Automatic annotation (TrEMBL), chains A, B:
Pfam families the record matches: LacI, Peripla_BP_3
Stated name of the protein: LacI family DNA-binding transcriptional regulator
InterPro entries reported in the protein's UniProt record: HTH_LacI, LacI/GalR-like_sensor, Lambda_DNA-bd_dom_sf, Peripla_BP_I
SUPFAM superfamilies xrefs: lambda repressor-like DNA-binding domains, Periplasmic binding protein-like I
GO molecular function: DNA binding
Entry keywords, A to Z: DNA-binding, Transcription, Transcription regulation
Organism per entry: Mariniflexile jejuense
Highest taxon above the source species: Bacteria
Domain HTH lacI-type: 7-61
Length: 341, 341
DNA sequence: TTGTACGCGTTATCAA
DNA sequence: TTGATAACGCGTACAA
């Protein structure tokens, strides 16, 4: 029977007749320790089966080398790619990533925020829950100089780092593309509150209409309860049932765009000629639906990488009086079959 | 300027003229502490802005309440759903999840395993890297009674918990379904080593052919370098170029199945009548491709949940002499348009 | 019901 | 270049 005992630097020190401080330093290649000692220590550490205990080190040094990530969910392609980007950049720097899902619930978000703090994460990356209006629960990180980065779904009035795309510009571009394809009656689906990214995309849509001299028609703007195929199908049916149906649709997500195409196909409405469609995100499904869905690229992995790097950089710097700048990443119109006519 | 100082149980103790042990207990609703004291302690803790330090608690108690998750990648729909399941079950039990990607590299997997151990995670859930043949790097968890669960891609010869589907049976079912639809020449794409799940699916395919009295033809089995659209398209072209092309294809992944359908469509080969196709996983894209791809359901979230629950249960039990059982989850044939004729 | 006192494994400070 | 020793913040026997 293998009675396991934890080998500590103390055990190594005893065996080698050295001080624990020497062992600690030797294991980290501290310059003040002779090469000979370093080698000797590392060798016996290995022999004895020594395993560093990050908990003890973190407690003492007050540095956990862990980045907390708090997202609405992780199964959306955009968000899993975002995590991937965060994880890759963190791993490269020797940082771990601890992940939590708010499931778009404000309450869960508040609780998880506490939990992240209790774990004394070195930094936090967060995309806000749909429900969240108030961001006081993040104040604790500010108070402790824990770098905090909001990504994609960011608060309006809270001075922190932010990594975003220009949702207004993207909405404008998407709508403008439809206009350039000759669409005159462009519909839009929207969702969420006036603080959401969807609101900004909608504002872009409205601005593009205006700039093109197209009058906005209320019946062409449909508000959804949530981002699902079902909700989008309902909306599409409603739009196509209009006396004067739209000849183009900009949906602020690919699930919605795909659903609109499917609905149009079912009803015999030709895409793109009778109805041009453009989505958002460049999810895998957008490239599978027939006809392929035009979309707006959303650089998920890059945004994750950028967020992590901001944290890492901030940890290296003096931490005080930092400028909490906003990082904008590019989006592009990806023209595919569903809008090309 | 807000000079931040950490409020500890010691500070609370001083303020209330109580012992730290009393504070510690009161904050955890220990039964030996009077209600009055508990209330008083909690109140002043809040007032003083006390925040528990999980690091210190973990160091002391040797319990981190953290589950380490080590996966090849997290962007595949199956794996992100798996994580979601793990995260939901863990969160419910007050456990955190720390996530790492091996990117299918054996070397990275070894390193990350060390890192997980150094963080003294309470349990580990792992799906092996494609490259991994040897699992000695997990021995450290065995030696320390850290519950270890392999999920989906599990090692053949290593006595731990395993949460899997029956890949052989699933491959058999998929192939058999095609046979039931009248297919006589069924092709199969495969990938990876003889230790992979793909190998088992292939064995199921072969067994189904045999049981149906269909002779296996070598030219109908195509080996891919990796699971990508491009590789599958190459394979599909090769198959359709045959003098005697197949009338059915079983692909052990939906990306492959979708790609085969796309290739067939391009070439004017009718799916399902000229070529029936069935995939694997029930990824979102399988339900978007036209015609819809029949597939094998793969209960990702359930598997994640089951894995986490095994860890949690194991942590509660005596930890010694446990039976390291294998948990099999169900798969089903999901018949859609691509194979129905 | 509450208090005393020590240890978890490491790092940091100061001294040698 | 190395050593002695005190923290880091909390939990837990054991005592009161």
């Amino acid at each position: 029977m293998k009675e396991h005992v934890e080998v500590t630097i103390y055990d190594i020190a005893e065996k080698l007749n050295l001080a624990t401080s020497t062992i600690s330093r030797a294991l980290k290649d501290h310059h003040s320790i002779s090469k000979k000692t370093i080698e000797k220590v590392k060798k016996t550490a290995k022999e004895m089966g020594y395993r560093p205990n990050n908990l003890a080190a973190s407690l003492r040094s007050k540095k956990t080398k862990t980045i907390g990530v708090l997202l609405p969910t992780i199964t959306q392609p955009f968000l899993s790619s975002l995590i991937s980007g965060i994880e890759i950049a963190s791993q490269k720097a020797g940082y771990n990533v601890i992940i939590m899902q708010s499931h778009d619930s404000y309450e869960e978000e508040v609780n998880l925020t506490q939990s992240l703090y209790n774990n004394r994460v070195s930094g936090v990356i967060c995309s806000l829950a749909m429900q969240t209006q108030n961001t006081d629960h993040f104040q604790v990180f500010m108070d402790n100089n824990t770098p905090l980065v909001f990504v994609d779904r960011v608060p309006k009035h809270f001075s922190t780092f932010r990594v975003v795309i220009d949702n207004f510009a993207a909405g404008y571009k998407a709508t403008n593309h439809l206009i350039s394809q000759g669409c005159k009656r462009i519909a839009h689906l929207t969702v969420g509150s006036e603080f959401s990214i969807y609101h900004e995309r909608k504002m872009g849509y409205l601005a593009a209409l205006k700039d093109a001299g197209l009058t906005f028609e209320d019946e062409l703007l449909v508000r959804l309860k949530e981002v699902t195929y079902e909700e989008a199908e309902k909306a599409a049916n409603k739009l196509l049932d209009l006396k004067n149906p739209p000849d183009g649709v900009f949906t602020p997500g690919d699930i919605l765009g795909v659903s609109v195409i499917q609905c149009a196909k079912k009803r015999g409405v030709k895409v793109p000629n009778a109805l041009a469609v453009i989505g958002f995100n460049n999810d895998p499904i957008s490239n599978i639906i027939d006809p392929n869905l035009s979309t707006i690229t959303h650089p998920a992995e890059k945004m994750g990488k950028a967020s992590a790097e901001i944290i890492l950089k901030s940890l290296k710097s003096s931490k005080k009086d930092e400028v909490k700048e906003i990082t904008f990443l590019n989006t592009e119109v990806l023209v595919r079959e569903s809008s090309l006519r």
